[in-house]
Amino acid sequence: MPILLELFLTFAKIGMFTFGGGYAMLSIIENACVERKKWITHEEMMNLVVIAESTPGPIAINCATFVGYKRGKLLGAIAATLGVVLPSFVIIFVISFFLDHFLEIVWVANAFKGIKIAVGILIVDAALKMLKKMNLTPIQVGILACAVCAILLISFFSWNISSMVLMLSAALFSILILPFTKSKAKEGSKT
Amino acid sequence: MIYLDLLLGFLQVGCFSFGGAYAAIPLIQDVVRAYGWMDEEMLTYMIAVSESTPGPIMVNMATYVGAAKGGILGAMIATTAVVLPAFIIIILVMVVMKKLLQNTYVKAVLSGLNPCIIGIILATGLWMILKNSGIASGSIDILTTFLIVGIGAIYFGSRKFKKRGISPITLICLSAVVGVIAYGV
Known about the structure:
The complex is a heterodimer. In chain A, 82% of the residues lie in helices and 0% in strands. Chain A is mainly α. Chain A has 2 domains: 1-134, no CATH class; 135-191. The N and C termini of chain A lie far apart (53 Å). The relative contact order of chain B is 0.07. Classes of the chains: A mainly alpha, B mainly alpha. Chains A and B meet through helix 1, helix 2, helix 3, helix 4 and helix 5 of A and helix 1, helix 2, helix 3, helix 4 and helix 5 of B.
């Protein structure tokens, strides 16, 4: 199959089965693009997640553009992005015109309640997979623990704090401690 | 003109929606209110539909608002507008990425961002599970908690028998069927 068509179809499938936002999609992308198709490596996937999180726009679009560009340059990026957008475009378009009380259909609501369970599991799975692939330093373990606690607290008290604040603090912190970690690395290489 | 409004409104959303869909929802609400595209009731319903149908939530909202205000052309313009900034930014990042990744400061920032983002994703997933099960609000939903444990066991347990276990897509289909049956009877 030509790569452009393959990119389009793979991302159309990903777009079709992404529920509950980009985080749940990460598991599907990891499964399709890293494990099955081997389009990108685990390390590139980690870079992709960082880039997707720190740039604006839907995470799904960031991912599709990234993988598409990697495999087929500009045309590949366009094919993958079109693919990830198309299914939801068609579905929403149909719903917005013909299904006024779509969410009130009992079995639809029940199916979504079931899917919500899967979404939670998939998000945790995506995080655990990335965690397994990394060799964290003690400082990084600390940052991770802080981020987990902060998000749980923010969610529990429904504080109006964006996760961007956490990311900016983590970035700033790692630049501030750079002189110390750097000298340590040098000492390490001497001995 | 409605098409130009849709283009500008959703370009704005596409440019400033950092941190995924849940950060973008308030932003889209503001834009929709500012242009007076929908009343509050329709806005709430639109968000609910966008969250539960497949696909990126932001794209769903753009398509929905675009279709409601400007038909198929409106839907296409709004969707393109919300996608375009991310598309261009990612291409630009990838063009300079190799050089960027060698920079000491970029490396330092990444070493801090990586664990932070993994933590954010992990906690978001955990919170979703706690919320679904009712533990987060103090009134435990026994049926859902039972389903979470069961579906989780099937998903992670299947890796012991099959090399990669069941795929995420299979899991979503399975849980939709389980939902229809378990909550329906």
